[in-house]
Model the fold of this input.
Amino acid sequence: MKIVTGAVTAVRRIVDLALIVIIVVVLFGLMLGKIVPLTGHATIIIGGGSMEPAIGLGSAIVIGPIRPDDLVVGDVVSLQIGADRATFTHRITTIVQRSDGIWVRTKGDANADPDPTLVPATAILGRVEWAIPYAGYLMALLSVPVGVIFVLGLAATLLAIAWLLESVESDSERVVDASDVASTPGGGEPIAARLPNPALRPPTLPLRTVATAGPSGIHAAIPPFAAIARRTSPEKLARTGEVRALRLRWLGDHSTARRLDGSTARRLGRPDRD
Done:
C-alpha cells in the first residue's frame, strides 16, 4: 500500500509541475504578444528557415527601433518591402551611402547568395534584440480562438487529474494509517472491547421510588426506562423474578401466593416444590 501511495504522490507532483509549466508558458506568450509592444518594441514570428541556425523556424524575435546611422554590418534586421509589404528578417552584409540616404544589402544565414537588390534603410522595421526559439508557435496558438480553447481545456484536464490524485492519495494515507494502528500491540482490538474512559461514561440515573397500593405498604424502587433498556439478559431475568415476587407479596394472602407460584412453576415447566 505504501508503494501505491508513493506512486500516486509522484504522479500528482508531475501533474502539478505540468500545470505550473502551462501557466508560466501562457503568461510568457501573453507577455510577448501584449506587453512587449507597449514598451516600444515589436514581436515578430519567424515563418521561414533562411536565418538558421541563428534564428530557427517558429522562433519569436523582439525588434527595437534603430536609426539608419547606427546600422552596422552584421546586424540582423527586419525589413518590410514590396507592394504586398512582405516582412523578412536577414543579416546586413553591405551598407551603401547614397545621395538619397543609406541603403543596405542583406543575406540570410542559410542562403547561399545575398538578396538581389539593395534596400533603403527606411524600410527597416528594427534590429533584432532577442530571439526566442519555438515561442512563435506559442504566440500563433494563443492568437486564434481554437488555440485558446485548447490551452484552457488542457489546463482544466490537468487540474481535474490533480484533484483526483489528491483524493486517492488522501484515501491511501488513511488506509495506511489504519493498517499501522492494527499492526501495533493492543491497537487492533475492536473499539467496543477497550475499557471506556471513566470521564466519558454517562452519568448514572437515580432510581425513582414509587409507593405501591398494597396493604403492606411496600415501596419498590423502579429504575428509569433508559436504565432498563441498557440491562443485559441475565439482569432482565433477575428483574422479572423480583417483579414476580412483588406481585405475590401484593396479594397479601399467603395461600393465594402459593397457588400463583405453583401455577407459574407449572407454566414454566418446573415441578411445584410445595
Summary: Confidence is low (pLDDT under 50) at residues 186-195, 207-220.
